Amino acid sequence: MTLDEVMDRWKDAVDAHDPERVAAGFTEDAIFQGLKPYGVGRAGIAAYYDSQPLGLKAAYRILETRRLADDLVLGYLSVDFTFADRPAIGVHLSVLVKDDLIAHYQVSRLPG
């Protein structure tokens, strides 16, 4: 599976507001840092996405990738999260994908 396929799976689940399906795209012990305090594991990831408003959508663009090993890819992305009732939020996202699952997810808010 490519980084595009992993991130498409993540995006589809985020857009569908399906927190359990989002979490299923992560390793059991994934380190997750969204715009709230970090968590570890699928339960925390599902809770994070469950707390997001209905209508949240993600649009991403891969900026850089590095294959660190046969089963390990580092990705650096630009992501715009849009909402039904407020302005969009632009972030940079770093992911570490192991065996087609996200093992590390780190968001950085863009200035401005």
From TrEMBL:
This is SnoaL-like domain-containing protein. It comes from Lentzea fradiae. InterPro entries: NTF2-like_dom_sf. It comes from the Bacteria.
